[in-house]
Structure of Probable folate-biopterin transporter 2:
Amino acid sequence: MVEEEKLKVPAEDLEEDEPQGESGGCIGMALYWFKVLVAEMHWSFVLGVVIVYGISQGLGGALNRVATKYYMKDVQKVQPSGAQFYSGITSIPWMVKPIWGLFTDLVPIFGYHRRPYFVFAGLLGVISLLSLSLLEKLHLPLAILLLTVGSAGVAIADVTIDACVAQNSSFHPTLAADLQSLCALSSSIGALLGFSISGIFVHLIGPKGVYGLLAIPGGLVLLVGVLLNEPHMPNFNYRQVSEKFVSAGRAMWMTLKIPNVWRPCLYMYLSLALCLDINEGLFYWYTDSKDGPKFSQENVGFIFSIGSVGSLLGALLYQYVLKGHQFQDLLFWTQLIFSLSGMLDFLLVLRLNLKFGLPDYFFIVIDESVHQLVNRLKWMPLLVLSSKLCPRGIEGTFFALLMSIDNVGLLSASWGGGFLLHILNVTRTKFHNLWLAILIRNCLRLVPLCMLFLVPRGDSNSSILITELPSSDVDNEISEANNIELVSLVNGIDIDNQKEAF
């Protein structure tokens, strides 16, 4: 990144362009705010945030999600339980994000900490997605491998831009919140646009054609690596890398042994793992079942876009209404409502909505909106709690570790849901036991209510981690290396948010 002294912009230059009164309107204020960020940081960094968060993760992630569902169903012709299992495999690169973070912080390449990793991530995305698009009759294992490689490219780019954001936030503390707003805004707008057009593109050019288009975001990530303004640091001593890796690992292990840390970590894992993911079975029923709604690709994309709006509303509701409440109270009510909201799927599969005079399309839009809103409300307290479990000196990497633990919980839920669909014999053409899978899933969502004692009392303003790491060489080495910079790793889960379906 650029040095602090190079980033100074005379205040009068910015004041001249500041919108006066209401004449500029919202668009004028937004453009002015964007111009301030470009002037204070560097245009290449701001461009990198927009490309990685907005185009690669937001728009590209939305297109990839819908395309992969149809690719598994229509091209590879796998069963719902198989599709559920394979979606878990492709998410594995997001579970090792602390490793990517340590590499980009500790191991420079040709004197650069960030640029080579953007180039590498872009190459992974371009090669894997073009291969999926152009190669005919790919065997399923090779297709899964290519999808996993593409996912790794997005994960590496995500971790690298997170490090850049954290570094710029430390240089410009007054703009730290603005940087997070830029990240969230770019991701939300990209996802909304991506879901809105995903169904249309899948219908017009098929899922393999969409994979070809997704090589463009990968190429743009590569371009970020070429354009990013980063100081060159030659003559790096690579002999210290292994020692710093060991030091970071020891510090994280010491922290995990603290009761105030491992107990809420256990709750977060179990609360996610017990919410079995059977979305692939529901997706097959929505689109192929003789007795189902038979939604088109365009309808599926639009429904996902409505869900992303619900997720955004959930984040706003937490920020302005609920963030001051106790963690245990919030988690109790959101988990309870999350279980009850799952009964909307139950009513839909049994076709009870038609008996009440509610059309399928109207009902599923409500279902998806409520699901995403409640899921976001359930997730936000866990994110805040995770940030409070991180000790000083290893905040970023430990937060990445917590996010990886949560991703393992999501993987467990995905594979557990696939196993449930398999034992209930829910296939491409048989859905008579799908209602039972939904009922079992909803009942298991209630189990985390019995484990809330693992979560400490407190709210977003409380200090949870009372016990700190003892002073040691581990802390000193990490602090001196200044190698822990990852702070904003929320998008790797939102997801996906990348794996959430109806």
